[in-house]
Amino acid sequence: MKNQFKIGVAKEVISPPLGTLLYGYPRKRPASRVHDDLCVNAIACEQGELRGVIISADICSVTFEITDRIRQAIFDLTGVAKENISFSATHTHSGPAIKSSGGWGDANDEYIDGILIPQTAKAAKRAIDSMVPAVMGVSTTESLVGINRREFVEPGRVTLGQNPFGILDKTMTVLAFKDLEGKPILNIVHYGCHGTAAGGCWEITRDWPGPMIDSLEKHTGAITVFFNGAEGDVGPRLSSGGTTGPSNLETGESELKEMTEVGCLAALDATRAYKQIKEYREVNFNLLKGEVCLPYKPHLTLEEVKARLVELGDNPQSVGLREQASLQNAVKMYENNEEFIDSMKYHQVMFNFNSTVFVPFPFEMFGSVSLRLRKFSPFEHTLCTCNTNGSEFYLPAQEDMVRGGYEVTVFKRATFYRLEENTDATIVKENVRIMQENLNK
């Protein structure tokens, strides 16, 4: 059949060398051993003249610049149009640094150039070469792997912990692809939850998604790929009552017991969803494209920037380090009479399989953003993917702004360019608009 849908998948190991500094906490953590290998998974899709590649990599985050370089490398090797490529980070906090962040370390250029980019391009080429006609099934289940992590420790103060009353997107979605003879090819698991169950250990690990992926692969015989959803305010539901696994940041010692517990719970949920799939259908594949535009707040004047730098002092901590670097750059821009932009704009590419659509977000968005987008989306299964094609910062819900907390502070303070506080509503509208415009073509 000329327009028969085809799919292929390939996996490559992207673990860094031992001794590499791990990213995810404001302490230096040289990798002491590999608990489980980090991987990059490339999924190639084709129908008629349309071809795209959607990728998931076991790293914490990715910049717009690195995304562009990955797209270029894949285009050079395969000819797939760069705008038809999507790259997601699973958000493990136990992998190498792909971006520089004040207090958290600098981007590991040697790793990016020598391992991440070439291995991703290799996986994409192998995925394309392995494409075969396929059918798809999809199912959902309720999962309590995650929990809202914005804990109220006293009136007016929010910290990182467990908040059983907070908003949580409980839906875990599993897509399964088989060839026309019924042989499993690929499983995709989508769920939103931070990769922090391993805590600040010095071991390389995919975190809790690792045991889930390994279990479903063993059960089905198909490569299993994880895409992280709205994890901005969601952490793993650890039995200790926290959302960050216990470990000694000075020595890296950790049993990773709670990580395994959460991973096993996720495996049970994913397997249940997989077994619920009763029907496999022919696939209508499409790419929904457009431009997302998110307005910035009025920029700080040069005087306001300098005053804020004085407030931060010489040795700011945590978010203050990121803010300081951004403001210092803004001073240079003012002094050089450079032009400031008034909005954040980025190319959007959604992968659409029948009633399922993957919607990239270059943020760590809150769970309510995912729930609202699903409500207004014309697709039955609308799956947000965080840290995709870029990783800016947290994207809180507007109603959380007044409560403060770490994520809100990052959103409001981490950069000179500051998004409007109703950006959560704007980004939902923008993505729904793109869906409708593509469907109406």
Characteristic terms for this protein:
alpha+beta, 28% strand, four-stranded mixed β-sheet, 441 residues
What this model shows, in words?
This protein has about 450 residues and is α+β, with helices and mostly antiparallel strands. It is about 30% helix and about 30% strand. The protein has nine helices and 23 strands. Strands 1, 4, 5, 6, 8, 12, 13, 15 and 17 form a nine-stranded mixed sheet that branches. Strands 18-19-20-22 form a four-stranded mixed sheet. A two-stranded antiparallel sheet has the order 2-7. Helix 7 (about 365-375) packs parallel to helix 9. The longest helix has 21 residues, at about 110-130. The radius of gyration is 21 Å and the shape is globular. The two termini are about 25 Å apart. The mean pLDDT is about 95.
| Broad structural category | alpha+beta
* Helix content estimate: 25-40%
Unreliable stretches, pLDDT < 50, 5 or more residues? none
Apparent shape = globular
Please render the helix and strand layout as text.
Blueprint: E1 6-13, E2 22-23, E3 33-34, E4 39-47, E5 50-57, H1 64-78, E6 85-89, E7 95-96, H2 109-129, E8 132-142, E9 146-148, E10 150-154, E11 157-160, E12 171-179, E13 184-191, E14 203-204, H3 209-220, E15 223-228, E16 234-236, H4 257-275, E17 281-282, E18 285-295, H5 302-312, H6 319-335, E19 343-353, E20 356-360, E21 364-365, H7 367-376, E22 381-385, E23 394-395, H8 406-413, H9 423-439
Helix pairs in contact: 1-2, 3-4, 5-6, 7-9
